Amino acid sequence: MASDGSQTEGYLQIGEAAAKADVTQRTLRYYEEKGLLKPPTRMDGGFRLYSPEDMERVQRIKELRDLLGFSLADIKEMIEAEDVKEQIRTQWRRDADVSEKAVEIRRAREVTLHQIALIDEKMARMAEMRRQLDGRKQKYDSWLTANTSAEAGERDPGG
Q: The CATH number of the domain where 16 resides is what?
């Protein structure tokens, strides 16, 4: 049972959570330390317990890190933006007037635009790196074409 008396069904201890997420226990603690993960629920003995939502967040962090190559700072910005949008969703009131709703929608839109900008920046840097590598490859191809076809002609007495 957790120290706050809540149910812990579906929660995982740190070793189980690390194994399921395919990360180390140290990585989970580090994510918590850096603010990427909220402090987990703890058992009476102080053991960390990770909720299904925590596990989803770890998967999102890994996706941003591995798939997009984001730094921890970028990941934190992306995760915090998701938190803002989740807060807006949970506090959404159907009975609020249109102007109140518009304020929240504008806030969610701005956060989303910031996320898009982070991704666009990463994509632009990757595209530039790709262009540079493509230029090198073309130089290699040109050199090989110029030098190996002449070499092949010298070696081939029939050519």
A: 1.10.1660.10
Instruction: Specify the pLDDT at position 45.
Output: 82
| Cβ neighbours of 70 (radius 10 Å) | 19
As for how many domains the chain has, the answer is 2
Asked whether residue 27 is assigned to any structural domain, the reply reads yes
Q: Which two tokens stand for residue 103?
A: 């304020």
Mean pLDDT on 6-10: 67
Q: In sequence order, what E strands does 91-153 have?
A: none
Rg (CA), the chain: 26
Domain that holds residue 92: 68-142
CB 57 within 8 A of CB 23: no
Angle at which helix 52-62 crosses helix 72-91, to 10 degrees, equals 140
* Angle in degrees, CA 72, 66, 64, rounded to 5: 55
Distance between first and last Cα of the chain: 84
pLDDT at position 155 over 80: no
Q: How many residues are listed for the chain in this entry?
A: 159
